[in-house]
Design goal:
InterPro entries: 2-MeCitrate/Citrate_synth_II (IPR011278), Citrate_synth-like_lrg_a-sub (IPR016142), Citrate_synth-like_sm_a-sub (IPR016143), Citrate_synthase (IPR002020), Citrate_synthase_AS (IPR019810), Citrate_synthase_bac-typ (IPR024176), Citrate_synthase_sf (IPR036969). Pathway: Carbohydrate metabolism; tricarboxylic acid cycle; isocitrate from oxaloacetate: step 1/2. This protein is an all-alpha fold. The chain has 2 domains: about 220 residues, Citrate Synthase, domain 1 (Orthogonal Bundle), CATH 1.10.580.10; about 100 residues, Cytochrome p450-Terp, domain 2 (Orthogonal Bundle). About 60% of the residues lie in helices and about 5% in strands. It contains 16 helices and 3 strands. Strands 1-2-3 form a 3-stranded antiparallel β-sheet. The structure holds acetyl coenzyme *A and oxaloacetate ion. Oxaloacetate ion binds next to loops. The site of oxaloacetate ion has 7 residues, from loops.
Amino acid sequence: MAQVAKGLEGIIASETEISTIIDNQLTYAGYEIDDLTENALFEEVMFLLWNLRLPNEKELEDLNEKLFSYMTLNPRMYSHFEDYATDKVHPMTGLRTSLSYLAHFDPDAEVFDEETNYERAIRIQAKVSSLVAAFSRVRNGKEVIKPKKDLSYAANFLYMLRGEVPSKVEEEGFNKALILHADHEFNASTFTARVAVSTLSDMYSGVTAAAGALKGPLHGGANEQVMKMLTEIGTVDNTDAFIKQKLEEKAKIMGFGHRVYKNGDPRAKYLKEMSRRITDETGQKELFEISCRIAEIMKEEKGLLPNVDFYSATVYHSMGIEHDLFTPIFAISRMSGWTAHILEQYRTNRIMRPRAEYTGERDRKYEPIEKR
Ligand SMILES: CC(=O)SCCNC(=O)CCNC(=O)[C@H](O)C(C)(C)COP(=O)(O)OP(=O)(O)OC[C@H]1O[C@@H](n2cnc3c(N)ncnc32)[C@H](O)[C@@H]1OP(=O)(O)O
Ligand SMILES: O=C([O-])CC(=O)C(=O)O
């Protein structure tokens, strides 16, 4: 019997130059995430992931121009949002549909040369934030807000979502969150994107498949579940009993554990500090205290540490963002990684087609239906 790597653990499925984890530190094209989080704009990180180098001033200016010009959506998308609202679909379900629908409005949808694919990555990155913001506004009966020129990508999303230009502090915090979530080697959604386009299918197919994979609670969907858990717990005093009960039931505690990081997720420290600050500023200190108590219990009981999804939940909540938008926001950031990996897959492609160890029945013969 062949050795089966359940969940593909430890399997090196392909090569990549985009990101990796070295000594528990996440790096994008050789830059440590700490360096980028403290210094960069998310727009620079997008460029870095796509080009494997940082942009110069002119290149960044050009990228900003393009992002802004592509942010406006075809109004036919809006009627879609009304349907999502009527059908009460989860925003991740809506986003998955919309990412596929974006292809209808791409004049070069069936052109696949490198230059057009690169342009398409910018186009999709620009539109994904407008999609999430517009869907939220439509379902809340508010008018859709067009992007504002000269706002950063982070500020423009918050502006389109809430109708007010965010404060500098909020913009900086959100920019950091976008950088921290941008890429992560062969995580499940990125790998899904690469598998989809390894058939030489188009970029819209890749990102739609990736969004479907991100939605699951074992991956990007965990951030919304974290907030659900914190809301259910309600007070610090309830925390121990709640978590211990869940662990006795062998339930997974959302926001903890990781396939690769066994000594802690290097992104979590930034989100923890942001969570501490913002919950304090918005008078929601207890949410942070509950989070810290859960982290203590999980470390003591299971030796597990928070991952990127744990503290991001309280950060987004304290920014007044609806809980079911947390995973779509993750998708806005991860779009940069998905599209970078899709471009890399095209450059180095071989169709992804592993084998399976067959454990089913053998040597059966067809029986006529009346004999079964
Ligand atoms: C952006 C991201 O995708 S980050 C991850 C977001 N997902 C979550 O936060 C969901 C909760 N976490 C998990 O489900 C897992 O830790 C994953 C999916 C992240 C990683 O899964 P795997 O690498 O397959 O780890 P696996 O599930 O085998 O866990 C190993 C052991 O730790 C336990 N464990 C892992 N995570 C948790 C958790 N969050 N709560 C309780 N126990 C856990 C498992 O039950 C298992 O115990 P066992 O050996 O007694 O059966
Ligand atoms: O890498 C993973 O398995 C999950 C993760 O942390 C991410 O996608 O950011």
